[in-house]
Structure formats: C-alpha cells, structure tokens
Specification:
Chain lengths: 342, 342
C-alpha cells in the first residue's frame, strides 16, 4: 500500500507520554521506566501503562523518536538458519542488553530472503533499523550506511566494514571439549566437522588437543554440514570404520543429535559405548532426551555485549571498531563418560 | 541515528533498474525477474545481477517503491517462541508465496519484545511493513492501521480486527492421530495437553476419537505447557500411574521429545513398550533421532495461503475478511506401533 496509508493511521496529533501517564493515572517518569523495560515497576502499574498505550494507540516508536531521535527503536538481527537453535540465547542476551534502552529486536533468516535481496541487510535498511547484528557469514554485498551501528556476532569468515565483532573463542572451546574426552580416557575420537568460520576454528581446537596428547591424526568427517542429517551421515561413516571410535565431538548440537541417532541404530549406548559431545549448549542440549555434554559458547553474553557495543555507538559514533573475545565453558551432562576397558 | 543518516547513505540519484541491467550486461526484464525471485533465471545471470546490485548499492526497496509503491516490501511475522520449530515450514511456505511478488520476511518473537511494546505489532508498524502475519495468540493491544493486510495464521483464541485467518483443522488432525493409535490396538492412550487455541482443539479431537471408540475417559495431562520439560513432566506422571498407558499423543513435537525421554528413563522402548505421536511435523519429527509419527498441520500451505491473502488485499482492499481451513495429514514414522499382547 501507499506510505501514507500507514502514516494516516496515526492520530493527527500522536499521543504523548503525558497523555499515557494521565490515562494510566501514573507519573510521566513511570511511563518512561515502562518504556525502558525497567524491572523496578510493579506488574499492575506496568499493565496499566501498556493498556493506556494500547487505548491511545500510542506507539513506542513515537516515544523512541522523542527519546533519542531514533527511527524505529529496532535492532535487526540476521541469522543463517532458524533450525539450529544456537541463536536463542544470543537473542535473549541481546534483549536483556537492549531492554534498559527501550529497543526491540526483529530477526531475519537471510536464506529466506535470498530471492529478493542483494544483501541480507537490505530489508532492515529499508525498514530503517537503528542497528544491526550480523549472526551469519558476512558477504561482500553487505554494505551499511555510514553511522549505522553494526556488530558481527560469532566467529565469521570476513566481517562487515566498520562493524564491531563479538565472539567466543571457538578454538579454545573445542580444545576444552576434546581435553574432556581425553581426560576420560578416550583415544579414538572423531570430529563431525561443520561449515563456516566458527566450525573451522572448532576443528582447529580439536586438532590442538590431539596434537598436545600426541595422538595419531584424528578421525574427522563431516564435509562442512550443519544439520542433524549431516551429523548422522558423518557419524555413521566414523562408526562403520575400524578401529572402534569411542567418542565424537560434533561441530554443533544439531549434528550431535545425528550422532546419537547413528549410535542408536548400531546398538551403541551413549555414553557407555560412545561418548558424544556437542557445541553451542543450545536448548536442545539441555533437553531430558539428549542430556548432551556441550560447549557453552557464551551466546547470552555475546548477545549482551552486542547490545552494549550497539548502544555505545550513540555516545561514541567515531570510535574505532572493537573486537571482543569471550572464553567458552564446558557443560558436562550425561552423554560423555569413560570408554569401556578394552 | 537520524532518519537522514540512512537516507544520505543512498546515492544522490538512486541507481535504477536500468543501471543494474547495464552493469550486469542483461536486459531490464531479466533484472525484474531476479527481483521477483523468478525460478526461470540461470544461476550465473542471477549472480551477475545480484553482484551488480551490490556494486551499485541498489536496494530492492528502491525497486519495491518503483514496482508497487510499497514502503519496505517486507512482511512482518510475529511468533511466540523460536524454540518450537513448528513455524519453520510456515516461513518456507510464506517465502515461496511471496517470492513471485518480490517481498521479503522479517520475524519477531513477541516474548522478546514484551518489555518495550504495548503490542507485538508495534515494531513492525514503526518499520512500515507492507503486511503482517500473526502466528501467536492475538491480544487486545494488537491494533492495525486501516488498509494494512493482516493474516492470523493457525488456530488462535480470538483474532485481530479485519484480519484474514488461515489454519489447519487441528481438531481433525488430533482425531486422525488418535484413530491411528486406536487402529494399532491401543486402548490406554494419554494426551499431553498444550496451551493456546490450537492445543485446545487438539485436546478436543483426541476426546472425539476416544468417545467414538467408546473408551473410558482418557488419561490427559500437561497443564498447558509447550516445552520439552512440560512434555517430560506430563508423560512422567502418566507413565507412573497404573494401569499401564501404551501410547501418548503430545500437543506438539517438542512435548513429544519429553515423552521419549520419560519413556527412556523408565526403560520403556519406543515403540515396542510405548507409542509416542507428536503434532506439527516439525523438522524435529523428521530427525533420525526421533523418527516421530506426527501430524502435518500443513504449515507450508498455511504460509503459502497467508501470502496469497496478503497479496490479494492489494487488488481487493475492501473485501470481507476470509477464513481458510486446511485438512491436516498424519505422517507415520517409527515411534508408533501396535501394543505388546497383554
């Protein structure tokens, strides 16, 4: 429809924060607190304010403009695949970091929009977002207007010009996971390699640990996949080769699911016959069904740091781009244990 | 930042479709085909056009404005929980339906934005989307400007004024799944009830089938959850009650995962000792690990139909709201089988 179809829908005189305060029977400063997502507001008063906003058709975007000259008070996040749940805690951390500033989040899976976009950022640029989080591999086509805050989240091949970067140390995380398996006594360890910059670093960390242990070159298969099917196929090849592999490290939790399936089909119990370790500590890893030992890539903190970096651009528009590297942590669950005595 | 910070980033004279065609060495009509996501373009020529667009910093939004006076050429989709993967095929179907029209998709999980929004639609309204898909329970606060196409996708409690609705017949789908278990010979069947309008209809369909079979009132537990933990807790209660339940229908695939875990912890094999049926036929159901019998809620077609309804508003702005109901289909996998002979 026409631009003015939307514009005309707004009241001739958009309601102000004072109108909302009056309608809700609270102070203007309390309305501001609600807009900023402050935890220091009772549920009852928060509800009263939100209901008043709805009644008056008051849009946070009006407030946004008033508060900071922002265009939409929205941060756009570009992901690569909604099916791999690693991003859930990143969005949670981002939301918590943005809440005090009253910004919201919109997400796109750029594979969904590839048919219409030269760059997966274009949609959000057209929507006049106030900042971008790139949580997928940057491409040459990713151009950003001068002054628009951009953060590349996670270890990627290449970056976006002028963007800050926040990531966890994937190489270190994979080394931690592999050392965990070595300490349990495993000596034949396979790696289900993934695709992308993070996966490459994870494969390097896996090799680091085996080199330090002076083990023969590891079984590593996967051919750059990311899905449960990829993990299933790679683990099947490893398990059907002799001598017996007693543990596998997957490049992500989704591929680890495939390894659990491949083991089950061969009558191998996890962890008695095969230890399986994932990566990302996604919601999948914590399920009762998987109880998967995994590497916490600190995605909640990656998201929270991305929020800080985006917000700090408002006060330091010309600062140099920053790179923040966080240390991952191993989360031991039921899918890893010592190998059977030979 | 200021609105003009973004605007000024665009070339003084935005590149036209002709500039792109010239730079890519193709015809203007071929560029249009690429913009519309036509399948009838070779990968090589499509790449050439996309690269030319990137070089010239040509934004599809410019094209959108030229093509149809659209504001952002974007459809906003509001979901309730990124962790439940039922929406993946809905987005796929929506994308395929929008591609010929050159529209992109942006998604938000309204629980992420509740801190800043009176209504989960506000963000997309501020971003001037050209249409909305509401794939969560509508709330009173959901107000939409006159003339903005809105589709409520899935069976919801309540709707959005003026919105079209497209859903699958959840009551019928749950009856199909329950009849499948009855035909296999199960007589003690539990239902892990979910939350929301769709889940309520699924519980009714479950009861319909048991009533027709003249069975005693079914074991139904779940207390309105949606997560794997909810399914695990509900299935645990059912399995720890006697007499032995031999099959469970979960309100969604995520809850079914919890049922598989509860069975495993009790040494019950699926399907030999317990049949488990999910709902949504999400990517999770098709994994090698779950091989879950599930109900295909036709989410791809729900998405494709939502796209048609949104696009048809452009030609019929004043037509009455439509309600489309699709018939679900049972997808039988390895998690359901006849019960052991008593």
């Amino acid at each position: 429809m026409e631009d003015n179809a939307v514009v005309s829908s707004a009241p001739k005189h958009p309601p102000t924060i004072y109108d909302v305060a009056q309608a809700a029977g609270v102070s203007k400063s309390l309305v501001s607190l609600v807009l900023r997502g402050s935890p220091h507001v009772s549920e009852a008063r928060r509800t009263a304010v939100l209901q008043a906003m709805a009644r008056l058709d008051y849009r946070p975007s009006h407030a946004a403009a008033a508060l900071a000259g922002a265009t939409t008070r929205t941060i756009g996040v570009v992901l690569d695949d909604f099916r791999n749940l690693w991003f859930v805690s990143l969005l949670q951390g981002l939301q918590e970091g943005l809440a005090p500033h009253g910004f919201r989040i919109a997400v796109s899976d750029h594979t969904l929009n590839a048919h219409v976009e030269a760059s997966p950022l274009d949609g959000f640029l057209a929507m006049r977002v106030d900042g971008l989080v790139v949580a997928t591999e940057p491409t040459e086509a990713m151009r950003v207007p001068a002054g628009l805050p951009v953060v590349v989240a996670g270890n990627r091949q290449g970056t976006v010009p002028g963007a800050d970067v926040v990531a966890a140390d994937d190489r270190h995380g994979a080394r931690l996971a592999t050392e965990h398996l070595l300490e349990l006594g495993h000596r034949r360890i396979g790696h289900l390699t993934g695709s992308g910059g993070a996966a490459r670093l994870r494969a390097e960390g896996f090799r680091d640990a085996l080199d330090r242990a002076d083990l023969p070159s590891p079984v590593a298969r996967g051919h750059g996949g990311t899905t449960e099917q990829d993990g299933y196929a790679a683990a099947s090849r490893i398990l059907d080769d002799g001598p017996a592999t007693t543990a596998v490290l997957a490049a992500n939790d989704t591929m680890a699911m495939g390894a659990l399936a491949a083991a089950g089909e061969r009558g191998l119990r996890v962890p008695e016959d095969l230890s399986v370790v994932g990566y990302d500590d996604s919601p999948m890893a914590a399920t009762h069904l998987l109880r998967l030992t995994s590497v916490d890539g600190r995605n909640a903190e990656v998201g929270a740091t991305a929020a800080e970096l985006l917000m700090s651009r408002a006060t330091e528009p010309d600062r140099a781009a920053r790179r923040t590297l966080l240390s991952p942590a191993l989360v031991v669950r039921a899918s890893s244990a010592p190998p059977r005595p030979a």
